[in-house]
């Protein structure tokens, strides 16, 4: 994978101290031969002068299981406060993408997958370094990302914190975990790629769009129930709320799996070029909903706030 030749060169991005040094690590050798070729089921990368070796899939990892009742419990907690990211994660955990482990392993057994694995060990450090990201030209995807995160008061580290309890319960230091962490880290990236806001409907549209990135029932569950609740609270509005959700689902079908793209290289590119690469058109129906809400004096951030247990 060619270097971007900018300040965003992946080789310049340091991993956090815990990455590769965690006591739970499968295997870590200092002074090992980093030029050796790993087998199909073993991953090798260098972190801070050390060689990290881990399995693609840890032998103790179990297939994901579904629990609709628990998913509903966590969804009710989420709609009372959409900032509770841990509740969204719990919905996904209880309505998981069953093929996730196999899909992650298949990607990491390709040469492209191994190149990205070696180049991008830990994205939150990269994503939260806005000083470096802003060294790219104006109009870059990096600038759009920094503008969005700063305006919304968000950090990639905050997303990590929100999922910590879940990771402690289900942690295996393998390639699948690396893949799952990337799925976590690109949620906010999708807001910039798609143009959806962080209002309630915008978040439901992101979930619908993401179904083709991470096809877990949890995404459609959240998307449809949330959108129907918005529709129920805005019965007098002429806004095409359900149409916006359907548009998001259609738009998501043409986007390649972003978790499997070289994120650090893409950040240096112009925003519109990145959107073109991901085949993501402007969300016309969603934008129309936002325009109608403004005309009708409806606050798109206020929906679901009155829901009770």
UniProtKB/TrEMBL annotation:
Residues 1-41 are annotated as: Disordered. InterPro entries: Coq4 (IPR007715). This is Ubiquinone biosynthesis protein. It comes from Alteriqipengyuania abyssalis. The lineage of its organism: Bacteria, Pseudomonadati, Pseudomonadota, Alphaproteobacteria, Sphingomonadales.
């Amino acid at each position: 994978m060619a270097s971007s030749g900018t300040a965003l060169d992946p080789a310049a991005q340091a991993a956090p101290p815990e990455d590769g040094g965690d006591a739970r690590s499968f295997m870590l050798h200092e002074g090992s031969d980093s030029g050796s070729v790993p087998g199909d089921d073993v991953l090798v990368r260098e972190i801070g002068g050390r060689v990290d070796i881990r399995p693609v899939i840890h032998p103790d990892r179990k297939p994901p299981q579904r629990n609709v009742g628990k998913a509903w419990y966590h969804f009710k907690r989420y709609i009372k406060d959409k900032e509770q990211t841990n509740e969204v994660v719990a919905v996904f955990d209880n309505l998981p993408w069953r093929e996730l482990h196999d899909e992650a392993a298949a990607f990491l057994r390709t040469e492209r997958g191994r190149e990205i694995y070696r180049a991008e060990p830990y994205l939150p450090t990269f994503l939260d370094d806005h000083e470096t990201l802003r060294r790219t030209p104006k109009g870059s995807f990096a600038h759009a990302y920094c503008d969005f995160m700063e305006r919304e008061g968000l950090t990639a580290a905050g997303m990590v914190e929100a999922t910590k309890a879940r990771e402690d319960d289900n942690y295996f230091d393998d390639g699948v975990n690396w893949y799952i962490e990337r799925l976590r880290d690109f949620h906010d990236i999708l807001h910039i790629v798609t143009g959806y806001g962080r209002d309630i409907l915008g978040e439901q549209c992101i979930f619908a769009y993401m179904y083709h990135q991470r096809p877990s029932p949890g995404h459609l569950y959240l998307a449809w129930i949330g959108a129907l609740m918005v529709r129920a609270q805005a019965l007098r509005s002429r806004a095409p709320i359900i149409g916006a959700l359907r548009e998001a689902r259609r738009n998501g079908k043409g986007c390649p799996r972003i978790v499997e793209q070289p994120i650090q290289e893409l950040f240096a590119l112009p925003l519109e070029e990145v959107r073109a690469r991901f085949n993501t058109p402007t969300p016309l129906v969603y934008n129309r909903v936002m325009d109608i809400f403004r005309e009708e004096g409806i606050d798109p951030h206020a929906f679901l706030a009155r829901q009770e247990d």
